């Protein structure tokens, strides 16, 4: 059993709080929830609307996964947080599902929340599993 590895990904999204981009133990990789900020311009305004913000959040998670030599096919579970659940849930689902084949969608929980960091409409965190059990 290997001890935990705390990952900060070079070129990854700038953290909005004190956390690691991901923590890994025994091949399990827990990705911190990401915001719809632009890693190349972290102080730029957020994209407008739930579709654009969902795409940016998933792109940011892909940056973290790539930094760990993983991709969305390794993701087993997602937790999604929406500040405007009733308004945005349908469009969020349409956008989200475009990233996963119908026969390989991760387990998922989606929760309505009152607010998110940086005024975001959406945040997603992920659990991935490294093939072969770990680094």
Quick take:
The chain has helices at 50-67, 85-97; strands spanning 5-7, 22-25, 28-34, 75-82, 107-112, 122-129.
Tell me what the structure shows.
It is built from two helices and six strands. The chain has a single domain (5-133), classed as 60s Ribosomal Protein L30, Chain: A (2-Layer Sandwich). The protein has helices spanning 50-67, 85-97; strands at 5-7, 22-25, 28-34, 75-82, 107-112, 122-129. The chain is of the alpha+beta class and 135 residues long. A six-stranded mixed beta sheet has the order 1-2-3-6-4-5. The chain starts with a strand and ends in a 6-residue tail after the last strand. The relative contact order is 0.25. Helices cover 23% and strands 27% of the residues.
List its traits.
135 residues; six-stranded mixed beta sheet; 2 helices; alpha+beta; 60s Ribosomal Protein L30, Chain: A; 27% strand
Secondary structure topology:
Elements: E1 5-7, E2 22-25, E3 28-34, H1 50-67, E4 75-82, H2 85-97, E5 107-112, E6 122-129
Parallel strand pairs: 4-5
Antiparallel strand pairs: 1-2, 2-3, 3-6, 4-6
Helix pairs in contact: 1-2
Q: Please give the domain count.
A: 1
Radius of gyration: 14 Å
- CATH architectural group: 2-Layer Sandwich
Contiguous runs where pLDDT drops below 50 for at least 5 residues: none
Task: Please outline the major beta sheet.
Answer: 6 strands, mixed
Oligomer: single chain
Number of helices: 2
The CATH superfamily label reads RutC-like
Distance between the termini: 11 Å
| Mean pLDDT across every amino acid position | 94
